[in-house]
Amino acid sequence: MVQVLTAKVGWMLLLVSLLSLSGSCNASTMMDSNAETCLSDGTCQADPKASTTSTTTKKGNSTASVKLQCGLFLAESSIPKSGWGMYTGVDLQVGKEIPPLDVMIPVVDSELHRTLMQHYKRLSQTIGTHIRGKHGGFGPSKRNSSVAFRDIKVPKWLMEQYYWDSSMTHNWYDAEKIDSVVPGLGMLANSHPGMILCENDGPSRPNILGGHVVNGAGSSPYQNQAFLATTDVPAGHELFVEYGDSWFEERFDKSFGLSDDYARSNVMVEKWQTSILDTHRDKQEQNSTLWDELEQLLLQAVEPLDPRLHEVLGRLDLVRKNNDTKRFAAKDNPAAYAAVPQAPRSVEWLYQEGMCLDHIAVYDSYVAPGEKGAFAARDLPKGTLVAPAPVVHMSRDHLTMLLMDTHDSDIVLWKGMQLLLNYCYGHKDSSLVFFPYSPSVNLLNHYGKTTSGPNVKLQWSSKMPHPEWLEWTPEQVVQEQYKAGMVMEIVALEDIPQGAELVLDYGDAWQEAFEEHARTTPRPPELQPVDINLHDLLTVNDQQKYPPHVETVCWIHKSQHPHFIYNHRKLYGGKMPEAWLPWVLMKTDYLSDTVSCDIVGKRTDGASYNVVLKDTIQPRNGGEEIDVDVRITNVPRRAITVVPLVYTSAELRRDSFRHEIQLPEEMVPEQWRDLKETTQNRDEESQCHLYMAESAIPNAGWGIYRGYAAPMLANNTNDLDHFCEDMVIQVEDFTLNQVLRNRFHKQAPDSEMDSWILDHYAWSGDITKGGNLEAEKVQSFSPGCGMLANAYPMLYNAHKMPPSRLPINTTDPSLGATTHYHSGMFVEQYLKQGKNKIRTLQNGMEIVVKATEEWLESSKEEVLGKLPFRRDFMTVDKVMRSFLKLTQTHSTEATDLLWKLLWNTVEGFQLKRIASVLPRNPGDIKEMLTKGGSAKYTLRDRVREPEWLETHGSCVDNIRPGPSTIDMAGNGAFATRKLAEGSVISPLPLIHVHRQHMDLFNGDSIRDPNKEVWQDGKQLVLNYMYGHAESNLLLFPYSPVVNYINHANSTAANAKLQWSSKFNSEDWLQKSPEELLRHHKTAGLAFDLVATREIAAGEEVLLDYGPEWESAWRKHVENWALDPNWSYEPPVNEWLDWMPTEREIDHLQNRQTSLKKTDFQFERPDKFLGCHVKLPDVPIPPVYDENGVLPEFEWTPVDGMFRTTSHVFPCEVVDRLIDGEHDIRYAVIRKDSVAPLHDLYSAIVTVHPGNHQTPPRRFVSYDMPRRAIEIFDEEYSSPQFYKGAFRHPIGIPNDLMPDAWRDLKS
């Protein structure tokens, strides 16, 4: 026994020496990964996939096997439980390409855009500004992007598991952050850290940078993507590509074996064989148990020292090596083959169990000139499975690209899609898209006009791993973030001869989109072509220069980088070297190992060059930045190349063509069609989202409540509610026109009749995005929540978003007959408590908007009394907390006395606002404080139960706005759900006004009371009023969307009016118009809009406006003739286009004599240029200073500045500054890209005082963003003010018109 132990100790010492002799192998360069999972045996596996069968042709109901030659197969992987693998069907020689070639597709700044998309969908949350990258502009910095967004959780998606590093695919310089999608071997092949049989050779770099743009830049310029065999590989062997050790390290713990561990294991096996087993074979035969124990001792010795090595060695049979197993290279790589012993298969097995992947060859396309195409590599009989196509699923949101306003995160400046979308398959009704990734299938072109039709088709494979996904919703499919589970098949529709191009039907939607893009998109400017393969490179001293869209870069060793030399300048005498340094050899062709360099000299034969490297250094001890340079000599031509500057490639232009390939209808299950028309999706929504009912605010009348149709999670601030999409109607100069009306009729003012109730419902025109600029004084009316929702201090739970101004430029009879302000919406408000966000709206709660104290005092006090303000609630809460403490230390008698004293004080000083909040009974104090304070306690009924809303309220979301089916009607109202005959579509609460309120007047001098005035038309709001020819009374409806209801004759109408049984004050029907207008200053009338037949979801709701309206409209159309002096075009504000300066306009006019100043829209007489500017905090001098110079102030933003026009002043743009030190020619190219550079402006701002006697004041605002400069209509110039516009109220049916109202009957 002692001898055995001694022997073991001796062998242990030898094992330690073996460990030291094994050495180490460096991990290979990391590249981005394939979406695969890895096991503890060191193998990386593709996602689970079903086993496959041989190529077949279907004839009728039978299946006939077709024997076709094949060089590449998809079959069950040799890695246990890993699904598919890729196998070679022919012998491969080291260094040879593995056909077929493919395409590489770049994905640009994907993490940034997915982050922005995530926040874009949160309407009320701040998105934050773009990061300024190393090349400036809207791009993530390669160094800092992860830091800038560290607090934002970017949603996962499957495709990022497949990315390859752009340094390996030759597109490193195309964008700030770029990833590469490499189909075929790049996505289908598995990986093993100990067995690399092929490597990514990358695609061909475009030889010419710039030049002609092909097919709208809709395809990748990176073609001929190739993989090379790194060793001789026999037919039948599974192919493994290299992911790099870093990929495995990021995903697995420290016991997972890496490439170095496999290499060391092989060395140890060799040492074991030669130093131990071969020398002591006789002892092995005598005592096999000893050798087994020695093997265990070896593993035990290794485990604590090197867990990774232990994991690899644990699978090896070190003692009894399997010398009888004759596998390919097994003797050279025993560690890897111990993990994947089945990697070599027989070719016969592949034909029986696999599917062919190389029926496609790649050549220049016939049907798409300038592109690559897919061709039949051999004769393919009808029904042949041309290629299996496993797909990566994703949401359209994953491919969305956004440019957001840097000062207002709710504003999207541009929305586009990644180039990858052009290679995806999808359907217009679904948010899902699918990217196929088997070899060369992405080079299938649309059959086009040069062929008789498609010769291949798509279908889902019966062998896909997860057919149940066809039954899932898009949301459920996208949640599968770590595995692909679906497979398409490309099948021959006819006998296809070898060499014929394979063409597919991309679908009508794709064809229409492509034709529309070709027809409407101007041809992009052709950049000067640069051949990157020319032997002679240009130097900075040559007369001929490189164009601004390229730069030269050099492969320079890190020890010669300026930053490195600066940090090690002690080696050069404490300063930067002035002498030329000889180039240090570099053995890499990765673009990530290059740096920008200036070529300053060259040998006459162009074999080597002298270059200068420049950099800006920030000293470690602080201080100013230092510009340094390093001179390198004898740089060989092969170490220098020309690359594009970021975001100058044609495919990165914003106007590049983007559209998915259409999936056939039969491949898109109903469950996936989540983008169908909203009305169709709402057909099953029986519950109501919004109710009109009595407000919980005393004396406030009606209010609007959130229903119970959808759950509202209290902590889900990522899904804030939005509601009440509606129009905004502008009313011009109401008060002024009442003054002019009295002058016109030579009558005294009448304060009661000259005012109207609508004053209480008006919004400031500046929050309706330009409404205040339409006329001298504008009132904006926003039906729906804008007029139904009440205001109450401290309890507001919604805020108004500005409407969109539609670019209406019609010249037909509808000109000026409808408002052009639409899509005004309300969004749920949230509160911040530290870093937490708290929702303020819940199901059943009354919707309350915020109003200023001034508005509450001026507009609501006569109706609601003295409403408490925020300070009153806070005062009461503070006093009640103190009083509650007193009750705990004093007797009941004493506290009762104190309570009486408190009330005597409140009443004595007539503190009515405090009194309206203060509890009457001191016993209520504790309940008040525990329920959230006095504000919530005073409105205890603001949350209603569903039964109460159904009984006392009426649904107001049965209709939604949309483009009308009626000619010249603009928008219309559509049913959101099926509506039964006789059901109430919507209540129509009504505000009563006088006809005289609609009159407009004008004059030569309207402010001179002695000058004549004349009647000059009617207010636009008249077209939304209900009236009768025999009455002065007009009624304005203000529930959501009802003002979109269009006219149809009595036969086509599907709705009618009746007086409301819930909301109408019936005694008002017996009062005269004058009595109502003088004595009733609140709304009290209401119609019900009732369905006259069943109305389907999505059907337009139509009302008969009456014979008088129809006659007036017919007459208007018959007599229509556009005023020849009328000229109008909607303001065009392209926020990403540069705004020309006054100097540039003058320069262009001097060069082009035919160019008029009015060719620039803002120079037209009906337009002006306005700047969003915060006025300086100091007084603005009224004139230039003594030197004729205007004062200058730096532009500063204001929260929500661009949502209103309250900060807009006329301005003139005088200068532009491009962000960063960039050639202006480069900036011009990049301004049309997906990441334009920031452009800042200086403008002269003019501030007009409130009176007409004081001269305007002017100043220069500098560093102003483009977004702050906007084109507006001049006052009284938009279509609303067209003198010949149609004006007529909607008719109230005779049977609804009370006799008491017929004051014009005679």
From TrEMBL:
This is Guanylate cyclase. Coiled coil: none annotated. The keyword Chloroplast does not apply. Keywords: Signal. SUPFAM superfamilies: SET domain. Residues 358-507, 957-1106 form the SET domain. Residues 1-27 form the signal peptide. The keyword Secreted does not apply.
